[in-house]
Amino acid sequence: MWPAALWEKLYEPTIRKAAGLGRAAEAADPDSYEKAFAFCDLLVVGGGASGLMAALVAGRSGARVILADEDFRLGGRLLSEKTDIDDGPALRFVAEAEAELQALPNVTLMRRTTVFGAYDGGTYGAVERVGDHLPVPAPFMPRQRYWKIVAKRSLVCAGAIDRPIVFGGNDRPGVMSVQALRSYAVRYGVSPGQRIAVFANNGYAWSAAFDAAAAGAQIVAIVDVRPEPPAIQLERAKKRGIRVIAGGEVVATSGKLLSAVTVRTARGTERIAADVLAISGGTSPNVGLTSHFGGKPVYNPDIAGFVPGALPPGMRVAGAADGDFSLARCLAGGAARAADAVGDLGFAAQATPVPQARDNPVTIAPFWHVQDTKGAAFVD
């Protein structure tokens, strides 16, 4: 705050007095909650490509399997991507896998369930949102259920999240992650804006832009910090009429709601009209659960991000959570790790053909922060 001389005499005392001015509710919580226990041979955390493949392999072996996913639908990122598995839409694979798992008596599917903690003795904490999504829950239905899951083995297939690129004005309404753009356009069939610009340092963002364009969104420009993006991506952008600004950086945004972005290149600056800016600084594996026993994530330069290091006893990791962003490797990794896990417990995993999918290489240039920008820069 400015001027700094007023911090101790004005700003800090005012802030401290303001703390706690809200009134705590005196009425009892009208909702009810439950606690429950579950036991299994293998707990699979995450219902994306790796998790579904892992649950299929483990379920077919006869092992008791729990598949927990925080979404109300299984599929993970496959729900938001236009891609094929075995020469058919990925959503067909998701539907067929879910139907088979639902029919297996030794498999339990826990949707709307977030696994939040790993503890001693193979115990995991999870919260199931039972009635949060219902306008009028049934009588005596709990709002949430707290689960203690005791698993002999676990397989974390928790996926990954978009990283931002930090610059002044990156918190203006209309600025979002590339994954959010892809989900709006592909999964929900909604374009978040009329003129959409993409700012990135990696190939995944281009795929997301192409998927959004195929769903009907208007992509006015892809700004990539790399001076020479891969030729195949440049060709795909040209076919779709999408302008590419290579070696560029978004240095500013304008408008109360986003109305324009300012792009800086070696040739100077340019203002581009846009009401949505989708950003991706790369993809970070979700390493939270893998770190609960003190294991430190390890930097992987191939993805410019951290992957799990030493794992808790009995835990394995597969797919994007392990830094494998190729769909083909996600499917193969989920199957292999599940077979290893149930094999440890004496179950014979059946030979399961791994579905065919694209083996997309990771293309990324490490880039975190745009230098010499003005205004507040939001870091999440």
Quick overview of this protein structure:
The chain is of the alpha/beta class and 380 residues long. 23% of the residues lie in helices and 28% in strands.
Commentary on this structure:
- The chain has 380 residues and is α/β, with parallel strands linked by helices.
- The protein folds into 2 domains: 33-161 and 284-344, FAD/NAD(P)-binding domain (3-Layer(bba) Sandwich), CATH 3.50.50.60; 164-281, FAD/NAD(P)-binding domain (3-Layer(bba) Sandwich), CATH 3.50.50.60.
- The chain contains 7 helices and 21 strands.
- Strands 1, 2, 5, 6, 7, 8 and 21 form a 7-stranded mixed β-sheet that branches. Strands 10-17-11-12-13 form a 5-stranded parallel β-sheet. It has a 3-stranded antiparallel β-sheet with strand order 14-15-16, with no helix packed on it.
How can the largest sheet be summarized? 7 strands, mixed
Structural class: alpha/beta
Helical stretch count?
A: 7
What is the level 1 CATH name of the largest domain?
Alpha Beta
Q: How many domains?
A: 2
Helix content: 10-25%
Mean residue pLDDT: 94
The H/E string reads: HEHEEEHEEEEEEHEHEHEEEEEEEEEH
The termini sit apart by: 21 Å
Oligomer: single chain
CATH superfamily of the largest domain: FAD/NAD(P)-binding domain
Uncertain spans? none
In CATH terms, what is the fold-level topology of the largest domain?
FAD/NAD(P)-binding domain
